[in-house]
Amino acid sequence: SQTIHQWPATLVQPVGSPLSLECTVEGTSNPNLYWYRQAAGRGLQLLFYSVGIGQISSEVPQNLSASRPQDRQFILSSKKLLLSDSGFYLCAWSGGLASNEQFFGPGTRLTVL
Amino acid sequence: AQSVTQLGSHVSVSEGALVLLRCNYSSSVPPYLFWYVQYPNQGLQLLLKYTSAATLVKGINGFEAEFKKSETSFHLTKPSAHMSDAAEYFCAVSGLNSGYSTLTFGKGTMLLVSP
Fold first, then answer.
1. How confident is the model over A1-10, as pLDDT tens digits?
2. What integer pLDDT is reported at residue A40 of this predicted model?
3. Residue A29 contacts by C-beta under 8 Å, 6 or more apart in sequence?
4. Which residues of A touch B88 (CB under 8 A)?
5. A64: nearest Cα among A51, A72, A74
């Protein structure tokens, strides 16, 4: 069966520090991968998605970036965190069809102070 | 482009009462629709999905949803609420973005269940 992992589970970082969040998927190959940010009362905001190694699409311009160095690994990064980057970050994977549901990881709670 | 509107950021019910969470969608193509549940500090879990087969879709934990094209709605229901149903619920519609499938989520509805 497929599983999706995210780490760390929680992170407290000072403003201006770098960020690296990692997501890995097991039990499937060539998944579509997604990064979302969830802020209170704002639902889920799609940040990035990827349909293959090295292929990244950005939905919202910001100081975050994403990379997919391996088929089942998706990384969210920042060179300098802002206060507004605080939130709950969720990684998800799906098959390639519009009818495919997305499967979510457990999330990372990021607090920027 | 697709969009989802969930009416009511919070819904309160008593244990044993009917649960009704509303979702309306906008889509330029026949939609695929999803309901997810999120418990505090956890990821989202799929409750059910509509993929153009039966219009009444049954999901996990006793939930079901009915696709009504004329009303562009996909409301989520459960006949009798349990305390364990207290969580946030998200409706989503699938669409194509630059040729690739993405989900557009509503802002969520927090379900509160009182004894």
1. 889 999 999 9
2. 74
3. A71, A72
4. none
5. A74
CB of A57 less than 8 A from some CB of B = yes
pLDDT at B12 over 90: yes
Q: Give the span between the Cα atoms of B11 and B109, in whole angstroms.
A: 7
Q: Using CA atoms, how far apart are residues A108 and A71, in angstroms rounded to an integer?
A: 21
* Alpha carbon A10 to its chain's center: 14
pLDDT, tens only, B51-96 = 877 899 999 999 999 999 999 999 999 999 999 999 999 999 987 7
Give the DSSP per-residue string, A38-49: E-TTS-EEEEEE
Which distant-in-sequence residues (6+ apart) come within 8 Å of A96 by Cβ? A30, A32, A51, B100, B101
CB environment A100-113: b (16+ within 10 A), e (fewer): bbbbbbebbebebe
CA distance A111 to chain B (A): 13
For residue B1, pLDDT beyond 80: no
**Cross-chain CB nearest to A44 (options B51, B90, B100):** B90
